[in-house]
Amino acid sequence: MNTNILRQCEALEGLADVPSSSIPLVVTSPPWGKTRTYGGHQFDFQPVASALWRVIEPHGVVCWHHQDQIEDGSESCEHCHQLLYFRRLGFRLYQTLTIICHKYKPLTRRYYRLVSQVYVLSKGAPSVARRLMIVRNANVGSKINMNFRDPDGYIGRRILRETRPIGYNGDVWQYDEDDGIWEYEVGWGRSCEDKEALKSRHGAIMPWQLAYDLIRSYSHPGKLVLDVCGGTGTTGVAALMTGRQYLLFEPWAEAIGHAKRRLANMIRKLCESVA
Q1: Whose CA is closest to 256, among 33, 35, 41, 36?
Q2: Which residues make beta-bridge pairs with 27?
Q3: Counting beta carbons within 10 angstroms of the beta carbon of residue 143, is it exposed (0 to 12), middle (13 to 18) or buried (19 or more)?
Q4: What is the tens place of the pLDDT at every residue in 47-67?
Q5: What does the alpha-carbon distance between residue 189 and residue 25 come to, in Å, rounded to a whole number?
Q6: Can you tell me the distance from the alpha carbon of 267 to that of 7, in angstroms, rounded to the nearest whole number?
Q7: Cα separation of 251 and 207, whole Å?
Q8: Which residues does 140 contact at the CB level (< 8 Å), separation at least 6?
Q9: Closest listed residue to residue 117, CA positions, set 75, 63, 49
Q10: Residue 97: strand, helix, or coil
């Protein structure tokens, strides 16, 4: 399959041409409810989800970024319906990541929601699931025992496998304390490196840092990453930054224009860095 492609088409149209069981990773942030029109293009969730089940390779992963919108004074619960449909198709819910984006908070009668979710869905056990290690481990060299709670609730003293020193497998870095909660600063233009894209009518741009971290967590370098809602090209930019290939589908011509510029700029920066 040809890679590093940005295609102007609806998600279903693009997916129809993708071979079955050929995609190792999908990273996408589909429309959240109907709060934006996106050039008048409609997103039909169920057919797209079914097509994703067909094209994902065994042990592949779909990272589905979502947040409920307020409709008629109520949270829509759309994410619940989507998650249950994914499960009916056969996807496992490998993990739910909590995404916190810090930005300007408008005054409303509700407590402002900073939180969205990424459903990490897999077709069988994921072949790649790499937790991001960001802090140097101060306990390297010390030994660790594994204690587990017995079925009756008491803490047992059974040791799983064997006692081993920390650092034995090269884990000289440790995970953030709350590593299932990812926090990003996205206000004042920090969610996107392209000022023109930030000012575009698209508006809802997935933070590039989120796509960057998801790609590093759930794929190997050189592999293909698909985004069925390519928007202004965020997933493609992150794929280039991490040494992966991209395949993006986006029907809106205005968003395509911004995506082409962002991808070309990132390719130029990468070329300059190795020149």
Answers
A1: 41
A2: 63
A3: exposed
A4: 999 999 999 999 999 999 998
A5: 27
A6: 17
A7: 20
A8: 165, 166, 167, 172
A9: 63
A10: strand
Q: Does pLDDT of 173 surpass 60?
A: no
Q: What would the pLDDT profile of 195-251 be if each residue is shown by its tens digit?
A: 665 555 545 678 888 999 999 999 999 999 999 999 999 999 999 999 999 999 999
Token digits of residue 137: 């481990």
pTM attached to this predicted model:
0.79
Give the side-chain half-sphere CA count within 13 A for 105.
Answer: 12
* 170 pLDDT tier (thresholds 50, 70, 90): very low
The amino acid that residue 70 corresponds to is I
The Cα–Cα gap between 227 and 264 comes to 18
Token output for 22 = 């050929």
Domain boundaries, the chain: 5-127+178-274, 133-175
| pLDDT tens column, 20-53 | 999 999 999 998 766 666 666 678 999 999 999 9
What is the CATH topology of the domain spanning 5-127+178-274? Rossmann fold (3.40.50)
Q: Give the DSSP H/E element, type plus range, for residue 70.
A: strand 70-71
Residues near 116 by beta carbon (within 8 Å), at least 6 away in sequence: 65, 66, 67, 99, 101
Burial of 257 (0-12, 13-18, 19+ CB in 10 A): middle
Please, where are the H alpha helices in the chain? 11-16, 45-55, 78-89, 195-198, 208-218, 234-241, 253-274
Rounded Cα distance, 138 and 171, in Å: 11
